[in-house]
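Subject: Sanity check before I submit

Could someone independently write out the structure tokens for this chain? I want to compare against mine line by line before I put it in a report. The sequence has 218 residues.
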Amino acid sequence: MKSNNNTEKLINKKEFQLFKEFIAVLSEHEGKILLQNDLLLIFKMFCRDKNKDSDFYEQSSVAQFLSRIQEIIIRNEFMALMYRHGIGKYRFYMLRQYGEFMEKIDPGAYLDIKDTQISPVDKIFTPLHIDFMPFYDFSPSIKDKRSVGKGIRYLNRYLSSHLFQNPKEWNDKLFNFIKMHSHNGYQLLVNGSILSDFDSFYTELETMIETLSQKAER
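---
Independent answer below. Compare away.
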């Protein structure tokens, strides 16, 4: 039967006792949300107290596991953590007391724990849930993980490619974008009641450039 205990998958069996001892030390920070730097600092002090060398601090399975934790919420009976298993990819775990069992939880459950962590214990509240997916309906999706963190460069390549593939569609979009800007009822860039489409806008733009060029030559 397949085990649901993720500590067995992520922590070397030979290091499991030390992992449990570190979790006991970590539990002393009950009620806190620790970020990665805080967590690694506590682990460094733990390794020093246990007379562990730099190899254990940097290369052990415990170190590798901790280096992928972005934040950890410490409660009395459990710890909830955000684990970065790949570029832009996260898993959420609940680590039971004493570090003997760790199970996956869904992002919603993790956020609920985080909400109750920062709210007063005697206050009953209804969490605010915001669905950001509609904002992504018309935006390009990043499929290559190497592009994560390079959003501006990726977007520039995406727009350049589509501008050349379908110039009419994008010219119309650009025209509609600059046409919509106004202040106190006055158009700032283009008056849409005079120039109704991109073709008329482009014709007038060429005429204006030619007129300005002739004046500059005088």
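---
OP: Matches mine. For the report I'm noting this point. The chain is about 45% helix and 15% strand.
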